[in-house]
Amino acid sequence: MELTPSNTISFVRVLLPLALPREYIYKLPKELESDVVFGVRIEVPLKNKLYSAIVVELIDQIELEYKPRTVISIIDEKPVITAQQYTFWKWLAGYYCCTIGEVMNVALPSGLKLSSETKLISNSENQPDTSVLTDNEYLIYEALTIQKELSIGEIQKILNKKTVYPEIRGLMYHEFVYIKEDLVEKYKPKKDTYVQLVEYYKADRSRLSEAMDLAANSEKQTKMLIAFMQLGRAVEKVARKDLYDLSGGNKSILDALVKKKILETEELEVSRLQVVVHKGEKLLQPLSILQNASLNEIKGHWQQRDVVLLHGVTGSGKTQVYIELINETLKRGEQVLYLLPEIALTAQIVQRLVEVFGQKVQVYHSRMTNHERVELWNSVQTGQSIIIGARSSLFLPYGNLGLIIVDEEHDPSYKQQDPSPRYNARDASIYMGSLYGSKVLLGSATPSLESYLNTKLGKYGLVEMMERFGEVALPEIEIVDLKKERQAKTLESYFSKKMREEIDLSLLRGKQVLIFQNRRGYSPSLQCLLCGWIGECDQCDLSLTKHKFFGELRCHYCGYRTPLPKACPACGHDELKEVGYGTEKIEDVLKDLFPMAKVGRLDYDTARTRSSYENIIVEFQNKKIDILVGTQMITKGLDFDNIHVVGVLNADLLLYFPDFRASERAFQLLTQVAGRAGRRQERGKVIIQTSQPDHPVLVDTIEYNFYKFIAREAVEREKFRYPPFYRMIHITLKHKDPKVVHEAAMKYAEKIIVYLGSRVLGPAEPGISKLRGQYLRQIIVKLEKDHNVIRKAKKILLQTKSSIKEYKGWQGVRINLDVDPY
Question: 666 and 534 in contact (C-beta within 8 Å)?
Answer without folding.
Answer: no
